What does this fold into?
Amino acid sequence: MSNASTFASPTARQSDRNLGVIVAAGALLVIGAVWGWSRYAATPSTERPRPAWIGVNRVIAQMTDGRMLKVKVDLNVEDDDAVSALRTHQDAFRSLVEEVSAEMNTEDVQGPDAMRALAHEIQSSVNAYLEQQQVPERVKDVMFEEWTLLPSS
It folds into this structure.
């Protein structure tokens, strides 16, 4: 047996070394590309959208049965731009809240679903008004800051 078969020639060793360098460089390139992609391109936005609200002044409405309902609501809209666009309509919103509240009676405003029902009616009324005025913004939700059924006199 010859030693030539057990030992690689110098050119074969150089070729193996070049192959190893090429494989290592390729692996580093792939690792770098994956790291760069995960670091910069695939990062989801961690900033949550801030809720935007328009406050409607307190309303005291006389309901259909003569009782008084005092409410103060805030209207949830898309963003601060919508708040700015809708600020000029605040007096109309107050009138709409008063109108919807005045259509209620004592039975309508008591019970577990009363607030949700009134909130839905206010939202529908305000959005119908905005549509009629050809304003693209819409109210997404209604929150009550105050809800008081005043005692009858």
